[in-house]
Specification:
This protein has 512 residues and is an alpha/beta fold. The protein folds into 3 domains: 167 residues, Ribosomal Protein S5, domain 2; 249 residues, P-loop containing nucleotide triphosphate hydrolases (Rossmann fold, 3-Layer(aba) Sandwich); 73 residues, Helicase, Ruva Protein, domain 3, CATH 1.10.8. The chain is built from 23 helices and 18 strands. The protein has a 5-stranded parallel beta sheet. A hairpin with a 2-residue loop joins strand 15 and strand 16. Helix 20 runs parallel beside helix 22. InterPro entries: AAA+_ATPase (IPR003593), CHLI-like (IPR045006), MCM_dom (IPR001208), Mg_chelat-rel (IPR004482), Mg_chelat-rel_C (IPR025158), Mg_chelatse_chII-like_cat_dom (IPR000523), P-loop_NTPase (IPR027417), Ribosomal_Su5_D2-typ_SF (IPR020568). Belongs to the Mg-chelatase subunits D/I family. ComM subfamily.
């Protein structure tokens, strides 16, 4: 007897339909044969399914049985197919009678006791089921809660026996209740345990961070150890506008494909913040593996990627950032296939001004020679620096600032101004793929960042006198546009431009 069920395979962060076909009662020696390009973990499902069925009161087929995972040209990996294979065996051996099973998408790992265990990519599977018009999805507990974010009935099955009773009609199940949705729910759920009010001093740095977030500009902070660079970076997500539901589903899809859940490592409703160590490999940062999966830049999608001690990262690892920073997505090609992963992140980097960290510090003497300083800073290539809009110095705090108990401005107050500026940008770019000033095309820069003649002359004078590179020209105009948005100004004024020029310090000191 032939049984056919619908399941899925992960391809990057997306799910592709897989038909699980089980045919029992074939002539020949009793044996289970699995075909359809299964990897080792899929082949091992035969042993897991056998024990799970036995401990749940069912029996394995006593004839030759073929299990096909179609399409045969797509490689299958992971324990996604334990549950659909077990249900298929029950139907093929006439232990379960159920109609229209292909109307459901089923996935789940089975323990030897018959209990189900979560799988990666539950959200992608639910989105696939909705796209295909399925009646619902059957998933293990935590995976079902995650998939319930998608508008499709999701049924939680905690064991093979429970799935059997539901499909046979013995025990109806109610769909998993969806968690609160919408920007307001996300904002309430993402209340952070850290706040910008905890930052002492650093008024210029706080301002630069506000401008950076308002326009989604990449940012680099240069300052001695202990000046608060890392502390500020970790609080940047608290001033970012709450993600829309679609943005958050994209974030959750990436993290779900990586095996992270909203109950485990994910913070519900919060934008991601990723801070990899400088020893990370190219693959760890970019993504990849035998079966390509998301790396740190994709895990930071719609959030912040923080690279502390930027010059300490391997040159090759930094250079792979160049194309993703421009495109907001990364394509990874491996022998097992090619996938495109989203990675529209805001880059926040931090570095010391020199190897010892105390160049320009009035309280510590710098021990580095000019050659050592130049070699240290030259680890950041010009093309990478070209993609960082704002460079800001973070001076050491004075003793008076450290002793002060006066709280700084809260994250909520900063976020209010930023959301207002983002609203202006959303209206400006309606009908285009651009979402913020930092993503403007050349045509949009010419249109939205036009300068009056006297303001343009001011920029030309600054370019010549400060020895700014040509690549800084458009960056300055984009940042000035964001500063004007924060000031609710329809056009770029001289003060906006002058402030933007201050944020190109590395252009003046590094590569000339």
């Amino acid at each position: 007897m032939l049984a056919t069920l619908a399941s899925a395979a992960l391809q990057g962060i997306d799910a592709e339909l897989v038909h699980v076909e089980v045919n029992a009662g074939e002539a020949g020696e009793p044996h289970v044969i699995m075909v359809g390009l299964p990897d080792t973990s899929v082949k091992e499902s035969e042993d897991r399914v056998s024990s799970a069925m036995s401990n749940s009161g069912f029996r394995m087929p006593r004839t030759r049985t073929t299990i096909n995972l179609a399409p045969g040209g797509m490689r299958k990996e992971g324990p996604f197919y334990d549950l659909p294979i077990a249900i298929g065996l029950l139907i093929a051996t006439d232990q379960l009678k159920a109609d229209n099973l292909e109307d459901y998408l089923i996935a789940g790992e089975l323990g030897l006791s018959g209990a189900t265990r979560p799988v990666r990519g539950a959200l992608a599977m639910a989105r696939l089921a909705r796209r295909l018009g399925k009646k619902g999805v059957l998933l293990p507990g935590v995976s079902a809660e995650e998939a319930a974010l998608v508008e499709i009935p999701v049924y939680r099955v905690d064991s093979l026996d429970e799935a059997y009773r539901f499909l046979s009609g013995e025990r109806p199940l109610l769909p998993v209740a969806s968690v609160p949705q919408g920007p307001q729910a996300l904002t309430a759920a993402a209340e952070a345990s850290v706040d910008f009010s905890e930052i002492k001093g650093q008024h210029a740095l706080r301002r630069a961070v506000e401008v950076s977030v308002a326009g989604n500009h990449n940012l680099i902070m240069i300052g001695p150890p202990g000046s608060g660079k890392s502390m500020i970076a970790k609080r940047i997500p608290t001033i970012m506008p709450a993600p829309s539901l679609e943005e958050y589903l994209e974030v959750l899809s990436v993290h779900s494909a990586a095996g992270r859940t909203i109950r485990g490592e994910m913070n519900w409703g919060a934008r991601p913040f990723r801070g990899p160590h400088h020893t990370i490999s190219d693959v760890g940062l970019l993504g990849g593996g035998t079966l390509p999966g998301p790396g740190e830049i994709s895990l930071a999608h719609n959030g912040v990627l923080f690279l502390d001690e930027l010059p300490e990262f391997k040159r090759s690892a930094l250079e792979v950032l160049r194309q993703p920073l421009e495109d907001g997505e990364v394509t990874i090609s491996r022998s097992a296939g090619k996938v495109t992963l989203p990675c529209a992140f805001m880059l926040v980097a931090a570095m010391n001004p020199c190897p010892c960290g105390y160049l320009g510090d009035s309280k510590h003497e710098c021990r580095c020679s000019p050659t050592q300083i130049q070699r240290y800073r030259a680890r950041i290539s010009g093309p990478l620096l070209d993609r960082i809009d704002i460079h800001i110095e973070a001076p050491a705090l004075s003793l008076a600032e450290l002793r002060s108990d006066r709280p700084g401005e809260t994250s909520a107050a900063m976020r209010t101004r930023i959301e207002t500026a983002r609203t202006v940008q959303q209206r400006r770019f309606t009908g285009t793929r651009t979402t913020a000033n930092a993503r403007m095309t050349q045509a949009q820069i010419r249109h939205h960042c036009a300068l009056r003649p006297e303001v343009g002359d001011l920029l030309q004078q600054a370019m010549e006198q400060l020895n700014l590179s040509a690549r800084a020209y458009d960056r300055i105009r984009k940042v000035a546009r964001t500063i004007a948005d924060l000031a609710d100004s329809p056009e770029i004024q001289a003060p906006h431009l002058l402030e933007a020029i201050q944020y190109r310090s590395l252009d003046r000191t590094l590569f000339y």
